[in-house]
């Protein structure tokens, strides 16, 4: 059943039905669709229904066309029709894989439109489902829970992914055992990073540099681990590798690159660009940082529209960049900082300052706290606005969730600190 906000009118339903019947036969998948999670290699790959893949790409392209509730609802109807067309009695691999791909597409669509519905997942470890579908589902499910602030649940899903791979005979499989295992380890490493456990995260990234699975999400999480542990040079190499590979679709044209929701390739590209911009800030390269973060901002707006919370994530990073630059260069950019912080806080849909912080507030709270904490600093240095700044500072400190860094440490970026804060734009969290 569709969420109430996505239900179609009768006229819209009829329109979609006619579109599916008349337009799908001549539809050619678009290689430039930002919502694209189905790649050419998968379309040509084994054990997947080509008609189902065509309908998936059609639906995702339809959703992208207008970025509206109506277009998302129409796309969801196409996917539901595609799912219902798969035989409910068949137990063959093609049917199971096709159903899994449709469910992944539904999840991506709901994620893009900010509707979190876990029932659209196929991740029960059914032996008939290909390994690449299972890994994509478990990886994305862990990522969505991280974005929602359900860290324990995310960790459980990451553990389950590793457990499922342990039960599959990957040695004699053509599903790419090294890639699958690397992705499973990386998502577990990311869950540890989010919880501030650098030592616990480290084993999951050992040997990654020369690993064939060091691509996409796995590589980005590895880069963020290096970044957080201040291995700036290697982190920069990894970020640039991810950006180049995703932008050129290198190594992302096979079944092993299948991903969904906030783990899909376009989100990886956005997050890698945003992380690289932050790294340039931490290295003192403010010119490069501004250029890179501007690129990330443009990508976020193109992917989600100008009013999406993930645009607010990038704006927060830009505001922090101007703040750090002003401190280091003993200059002033208060108007720029304030404008960026105010817009970021608005897009992040921050709760009112008068609303007391409680533990049920999870989604985006890391970044909201960073934005309000940074904004509070710009207000506190202005004598006539200091009371306003102090109130905002108290709220931000109460909202801060990171277990290994205080908010003041995250805002200060000290050279003596053993770890460096990194904003992950995929999951909207501060690592």
Automatic annotation (TrEMBL):
GO terms for cellular component: mitochondrion. InterPro entries: TPR-like_helical_dom_sf. PANTHER family: OS05G0457700 PROTEIN. This is Tetratricopeptide repeat (TPR)-like superfamily protein.
């Amino acid at each position: 059943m569709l969420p109430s906000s996505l239900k179609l009118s009768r006229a819209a339903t009829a329109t979609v039905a006619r579109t599916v019947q008349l337009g799908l036969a001549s539809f050619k998948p678009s290689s430039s669709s930002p919502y694209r999670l189905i790649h050419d290699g998968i379309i040509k790959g084994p054990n997947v229904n080509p008609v189902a893949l065509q309908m998936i790409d059609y639906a995702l392209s339809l959703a992208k066309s207008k970025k509206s509730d109506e277009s998302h609802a129409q796309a969801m109807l196409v996917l539901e029709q595609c799912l219902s067309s798969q035989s409910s009695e068949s137990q063959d691999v093609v049917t199971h894989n096709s159903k899994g791909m449709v469910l992944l597409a539904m999840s991506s669509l709901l994620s893009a439109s900010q509707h979190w519905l876990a029932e659209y997942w196929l991740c029960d470890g059914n032996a008939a489902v290909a390994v690449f579908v299972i890994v994509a589902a478990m990886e994305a499910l862990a990522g969505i829970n991280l974005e929602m602030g359900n860290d324990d649940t995310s960790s459980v899903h990451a553990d389950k992914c590793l457990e499922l791979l342990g039960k599959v005979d990957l040695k004699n499989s053509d599903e790419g055992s090294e890639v699958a295992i690397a992705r499973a380890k990386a998502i577990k490493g990311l869950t540890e990073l989010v919880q501030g456990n650098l030592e616990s995260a480290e084993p999951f990234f050992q040997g990654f540099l020369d690993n064939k699975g060091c691509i996409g999400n796995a590589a980005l999480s590895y880069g963020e681990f290096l970044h957080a542990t201040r291995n700036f040079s290697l982190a920069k190499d990894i970020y640039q590798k991810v950006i180049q590979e995703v932008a050129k679709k290198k190594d992302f044209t096979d079944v092993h690159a299948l991903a969904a929701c906030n783990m899909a390739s376009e989100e990886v590209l956005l997050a890698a660009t945003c992380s690289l911009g932050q790294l340039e800030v931490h290295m003192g390269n403010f010119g490069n940082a501004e250029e890179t973060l501007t690129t990330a901002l443009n990508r976020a707006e193109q992917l989600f529209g100008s009013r999406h919370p993930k645009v607010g994530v990038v704006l927060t990073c830009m505001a922090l960049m101007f703040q750090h630059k002003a401190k280091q260069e003993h200059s002033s950019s208060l108007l720029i900082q304030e404008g960026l912080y105010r817009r970021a806080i608005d897009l992040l849909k921050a709760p009112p300052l008068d609303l007391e912080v409680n533990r049920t507030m999870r989604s985006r709270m890391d970044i909201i706290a960073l934005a309000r904490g940074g904004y509070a600093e710009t207000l506190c240095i202005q004598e006539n606005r200091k009371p306003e700044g102090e109130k905002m500072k108290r709220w931000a400190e109460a909202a801060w969730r990171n277990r290994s860094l205080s908010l003041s440490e995250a805002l200060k970026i000290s050279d003596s600190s053993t770890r460096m804060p990194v904003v992950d734009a995929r999951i909207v969290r501060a690592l």
